[in-house]
Amino acid sequence: MKAARAAAPGKVILFGEHAVVYGRPALAVPVAQVTARATVAPGGQGFWIEAVNLSKRYALEAAPASDPLAKAVELALNRAGLSEPPAGEVRVESSIPMASGLGSGAAVCTAVVRALAEALGLELSAAEVSALVFETETLLHGTPSGIDNTVVAYGQPVYFVREQPPVPFRVGRPFHLLIADTGRPSPTRVAVGDVRAAYERGPARLTAIFDQIGAVVDEARGRIEAGQPEALGPLMNRNQALLRELGVSSPELDELAARAGAGGALGAKLSGAGRGGNLLALVTPETAEAVREALVAGGAAGVIGTWVGETLKRDA
Ligand code: PMV
Question: Is 0.85 topped by the overall pTM?
Answer without folding.
Answer: yes
